[in-house]
Amino acid sequence: MRSGGDLADSFVHRTALHNTVKTLYAQVQAAMQTSTALVQAGVIISAYEYASGQIDAAYISIAACIRMAQVLGINVAYNNLADSQEQMRRQAMGHWNLWWSTIILERFIFLESSYADRRTPAALYPNTNIPLPSDDKCDDEYIPTSVTLESSITQSSSILSNFGRQAQAIYMLDRCLCETSQFNNYDLETRLSKLQSFDEELQKRLSESMTPVPHEPGLRCDLYISYTKTYYLVQLWYP
């Protein structure tokens, strides 16, 4: 672990630990077959790199996770959410939540990168009739429910976990990125009309997200950040 430098310095220590973990991770990747555990470890590494400002490294790490997940079929785990065997259903839920983790984290990294205007996310947002992520824990008062984005629009947000709400927020972000990429093809009146409509929907979603739910008390800053980033992108396009 001592790769040089004074480990009393927390920054040096974190850097040394990160380098060691990345080295071990690369060795395991080279020596073993791709597995769910490798994808999970890669997501954690990528999240650390994002949080510590290593955006390029985080982008590379999450891209590798996405490719491994696709090889394992984790990106289509929703097909087994209705399996007759409980063990298979729980495994599918875990895999599906993992795939959603890569989708959400990639968007966070993507927006902080300097190449966001030249690339598109590798983990495509699922169709609106595909289930949102759901917590795999439950108690007497709350039982997690698999709902689609399409149905969640017309139902109370209280049926969603915060994970599901975050997926909703990322959907709004994806829509914003898609719409604004086409804005140069619109005249001013059309652009303003689309911006106003998007603005109103964003404010509605943000208001709903601030409504507390009994099974998950407290605030979720990551959820508000997603909506705020999207709102900021919308405001940039106002003349």
Automatic annotation (TrEMBL):
GO aspect biological process, one term: DNA-templated transcription
Source organism, top-level taxon: Eukaryota
Keyword Nucleotide-binding: no
Record keywords, A-Z: DNA-binding, Metal-binding, Nucleus, Transcription, Transcription regulation, Zinc
UniProt domain Xylanolytic transcriptional activator regulatory: residue ranges: 34-203
Claim: Nucleus is one of the keywords in the record: yes
Pfam families: Fungal_trans (PF04082)
GO MF assignments: DNA binding; zinc ion binding
InterPro entries: Transcr_Regulatory_Elem, XnlR_reg_dom
PANTHER family linked: TY1 ENHANCER ACTIVATOR (PTHR31313)
Protein name, as recorded: Xylanolytic transcriptional activator regulatory domain-containing protein
Protein species of origin: Fusarium austroafricanum
